[in-house]
Amino acid sequence: MSKKTVWFEVGENETMDACLERMKQAGYAAVGRKEEPLFEEIDGKPVPIRQIVKFKGMKLSE
């Protein structure tokens, strides 16, 4: 049996703790994390703006 997983992205004005609480309220537990940079092109060159953080959530059994 496959367990359902969903990726939750930390909002731009949200703390990681708030995202984890949002996951918990939705019935998910964090089982993984990934980060990726967000770039913007300025003067023809890519410039990092911020990190995008995502948590992999696994559905809690009921």
UniProtKB/TrEMBL annotation:
Q: What name appears for this protein in its UniProt entry?
A: NETI motif-containing protein
Q: Matching InterPro entries, A to Z? A: NETI
UniProt superkingdom: Bacteria
